[in-house]
Write a structure and sequence with these properties.
Elements (H helix, E strand, L loop, with lengths): L5 H7 L46 H24 L3 H31 L9
Bound molecules: zinc ion.
Length: 125
């Protein structure tokens, strides 16, 4: 992945400003005890992650959009495999949602903060 792109920060769990420091404490979204723990500030460039109280409420909208996109994609996949069967869709999508919760949570926050913070190659500490 190319450093300097938003995708690098979002998929690589990197600070949106310097793309060097980590955003979440653990790299593994399935470490269920720590998957939601973020650094308060970037360990490399000192960028503050939680901009203001409630800043990450907006990440819920991103999460919603990601969930809808996943739901539509999953529906198409199930439709192509089994035809129109709502029961298979509901049960299998519930399982997919449960499995992707930690990843969705983290991706929602990373996308949200990347809306507001621009990458700076030469950051001042
Ligand atoms: Zn940084």
């Amino acid at each position: 992945m190319i450093k300097g792109t938003k995708l690098y920060s979002i998929l690589g769990n990197k600070c949106p400003r310097c793309h060097e420091g980590d955003f979440f404490i653990t790299k593994n979204p399935y470490n269920l005890k720590k998957f939601d723990k973020m650094y308060e500030r970037c360990t490399v460039c000192n960028e503050k992650f939680d901009k203001e109280p409630g800043f990450f409420y907006g990440a819920m909208y991103v999460n919603y959009a990601l969930t809808v996109a996943l739901g539509v994609g999953w529906f198409i996949l199930i439709y192509l495999m089994y035809g129109f069967d709502p029961m298979i869709y509901v049960v299998s999508f519930s399982i997919v949602l449960l499995i992707t919760i930690p990843w969705m949570f983290r991706t929602g926050r990373l996308v949200w903060i990347n809306f507001f913070v621009k990458y700076k190659k030469d950051f001042v500490k």
